[in-house]
Design goal:
2 domains; 11 helices; single chain; elongated; mainly alpha; 0% strand
Length: 305
């Protein structure tokens, strides 16, 4: 009878279909980020290569109009802020279209200005304007990265975690979890969740959750995986599983542990990314104003002298 109970608990654990929505969402975000960053690298490299061909200079007609085109694009970026903040602009089309318009100009504008400068700095004012633009462009890439992490919302992350808790039997209402056959793994998962959820929302913890927590997640997963590699073969001998049964149960148990840890990290990191996104707004705006002022001074200096 005792063996039958253990077998039932194990089967429930490994046959349980964990929610894969969070996994798919993460894969899609990572894939999108990878494509965007690789594309940006290729575009910057291509722009640099063109600038080295000697086809134009910053002072001739071609270089001049490239600078004008880039400056106009950077000014048009401000329309997105107007569309978001003022009531009279709400009829100006879909906000998502404006967002992608903002993103496209945020890439094409700096590329045109880099072509205009041929990656060289002339006057002090031109250097300040160029570096301000580069900082704003890089800041925009960072802002996109943070936005992707907070866009789904805390409720969505908590729902995934609660779903996994119910299916794994790790909620307080369940007297027996699906990991009862491996109590050390069960306690490790609960301890990881309790420890991370209890941390206060400070800026220091926000950086810790972003950079250190994934490393700790991996270390906890490896410990759980090693414990499962000890427990499951013992059960295979007592319950006469085939090699294929053991491999299937091992894979599914580890997948459940991985998804559970990942979901805890996503919930914990949401607050961290939200704090960093708010901090990003504070740091981003002054550089935008600095870029606009120095660009105007640069345009005036070019035409006046």
């Amino acid at each position: 009878m005792a063996i039958d109970k253990v077998k039932t608990s194990t089967d429930q654990a490994v046959e349980m279909p964990p929610s894969a929505a969070s996994d798919r969402s993460t894969v899609q975000v990572l894939a999108g980020d990878t494509v965007v960053y690789l594309l940006l690298i290729v575009l910057v490299w291509g722009t640099w290569r063109i600038s080295q061909l000697g086809l134009f200079s910053a002072g001739d007609d071609t270089g001049y109009w490239m600078g004008v085109t880039g400056a106009v694009m950077m000014l048009l970026l401000l329309l997105y802020s107007l569309r978001k903040r003022f009531r009279f602009t709400r009829s100006w089309g879909n906000i998502r279209v404006w967002f992608w318009f903002h993103m496209a100009l945020g890439v094409l504008g700096p590329l045109c200005i880099l072509l205009h400068s041929t990656f060289r700095i002339g006057s002090l004012n031109a250097g300040v304007a160029l570096y301000s633009m580069v900082i704003v462009a890089v800041s925009g890439v960072v802002g996109r990265f943070l936005y992707q992490r907070v866009n789904r919302g805390l409720d969505g992350e908590k729902t995934d975690l609660e779903t996994l808790q119910r299916k794994a039997g790790l909620t307080q209402e369940d007297s027996r979890s699906r990991l009862a056959f491996a109590p050390s793994v069960e306690n490790r998962l609960k301890g990881f969740e309790a420890h991370e959820m209890a941390r206060k929302e400070t800026l220091l913890n926000a950086f810790r959750h972003v950079f250190w927590l994934p490393i700790r997640q991996y270390r906890v997963y490896r410990k759980c995986a090693r414990e499962l590699d000890v427990v499951l073969p013992r059960m295979a001998k007592t319950q006469h599983w085939t090699h294929e049964d053991l491999q299937r149960r091992r894979m599914r148990s580890k997948k459940m542990v991985s998804r559970y840890l990942h979901s805890v990290v996503r919930v914990t990191q949401y607050s961290a990314y939200s704090s960093l996104f708010a901090l990003w707004h504070v740091a981003h705006i002054p550089f935008v104003y600095l870029m606009i002022v120095t660009a105007l001074v640069h345009v005036y200096a070019v035409h006046a002298y």
